[in-house]
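Quarterly update, task 2.4: nickel (II) ion-bound model.
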Amino acid sequence: MKIRFLGHSATEVEGERVRLLIDPFITGNGVCPVKAEELNPDVIILTHGHGDHVGDTVAIAQRTGALVVCGYDTGEALAAKGVKVHGLGLGGKWRFDWGMLRMVPAFHGSGMPGCHPAGWVIHLDGKRFYHAGDTCLYSDMKLLNGVIEQPGIDVAMLPIGDRFTMGPEEAAIAAQWIGAKRVIPIHYGTFPGVLTGTAEAFQSEVAALSGPEVVVLKPGETFEL
Ligand code: NI
Ligand code: MN
């Protein structure tokens, strides 16, 4: 599994049989090293309806025919724009021929009427990856640590920018609770003066808790699992 961070929350995940694109905020994302036209996903996965997550979804899906997986109500809105969608509800999962997706809660705004924001657990090529979306710290994150996910998460992407999501201190606690082997900070450094959390602060908070390995990816960098 190759995880390429594109800045903010946007992430490309390449498996043996599929290319996934999560929260493709590309146009207007000042740190993203690629153009929306350069991305060719099979599946686009959305955490919620805010513009800095839906981003270029409609244009990319229309051009590539990618399936958009998202909350059911968000999907209704996107289907009206001629996009192929596969909606899920919180707590649900779906097996595709390339792997499995589980939709888990995120506590945040929705950006589109009627849809609760989400995080996603992705089972791909025998590995488990969690993208937390935009969320606060919440104690049911512990369920990913061997309760609903066994044997647990291999790598987790956690927002650390603060103000709209967890900051470094809370995200370090989340890293403990999730029990992921590795954590990658996201949702920071994109809106200067707005998102105040830094990767350095996150690293030191995680270290103070003797937490998991922190993998800091610059936009455009890839981590291979
Ligand atoms: Ni948001
Ligand atoms: Mn956001």
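Highlight for this quarter: The helical segments are 51-54, 57-64, 72-79, 168-178, 199-208.
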